[in-house]
């Protein structure tokens, strides 16, 4: 979700091309550890955001996260504003609106259903994109596994899950798939992370009226602001930095497989921080979605394509 959900809340970044030379065996635990640390940061940042919602509301939390992340990225990246075409700006604006929508829908979801369930449902977006992009018959197996996981997640009839929460999580997943596409386009038009910084600023400005409408002056409370900055750092800035460092040596295929563990990380953080325990069936559902994601990634690796960027 969850650029972060992690959230998501996952961090906003695009998977770099697979390096022409793989990492040395002895150093492989380094980048793997960075990716896992980034994933844990995203999901625990999402859990922190859930605890902040009573103070600022879901829309207020999203506003704080986007504003704080935008300020940090603009200061660090110092993107150049001149010299870009109208198409460049159009791309970054749509990317920013997609980023804002993805975060807004995800936080509406975790306000209604457990963090593990929300991330699992959201993960169907990039999983569907990965399956469709591959166009191989074997991907019907991965799609079937994912659908079975979703069926089990709802206890067979979704009677145990809030319907609006499910709809918001699926909407966030659709926006995540769109985010992947626009992230790639923006990355090709802007150097380094300039496009991301500008898109984050666009998303923050677009979301600001919604946050003010829901939270009002509560957005100015020092404690609320401090917690919002913490959410931004844990869900966007820190994981983004760790993933960039990891991708200098870690093949994109291995990175994508590691990102498939996001639903499990979300379930763990939800249990430890929010006391949101999954039933046996729901835990099996998360495992099926993870297996489907890993299978889809491996299929693409076999074709020389590895894609699955991280969570928002």
What is the overall shape?
A: globular
Structural classification: mainly alpha
Distance between the first and last residues' Cα: 4 Å
Helices and strands, in order, run as HHHHHHHHHHHH
Instruction: Classify the helix fraction into a percent range.
Output: over 70%
Write down how many β-strands occur, each being a DSSP E stretch of 2 or more residues.
0
Mean pLDDT: 77
What is the helix tally? 12
Q: What multimeric state do the chains show?
A: single chain
Q: How much of the sequence is in beta strands?
A: under 5%
Radius of gyration: 18 Å
Report low-confidence residues grouped into runs of 5 or more: 4-29, 304-312
Biggest beta sheet attributes: none
Explain this structure.
This protein is mainly alpha-helical and 312 residues long. The chain is 74% helix and 0% strand. The chain contains twelve helices and no strands. α2 packs across α9 and α5 runs parallel beside α12. It starts with 5 loop residues before the first helix and ends in a 10-residue tail after the last helix.
Give the key terms.
74% helix; mainly alpha; 312 residues
Write the SSE topology.
Layout: H1 6-9, H2 29-77, H3 86-110, H4 115-122, H5 124-134, H6 139-153, H7 163-189, H8 194-215, H9 222-246, H10 252-259, H11 262-274, H12 280-302
Explain briefly what this protein structure is:
This protein has 312 residues and is mainly alpha-helical. It has helices spanning 6-9, 29-77, 86-110, 115-122, 124-134, 139-153, 163-189, 194-215, 222-246, 252-259, 262-274, 280-302. It contains 12 helices and no strands.
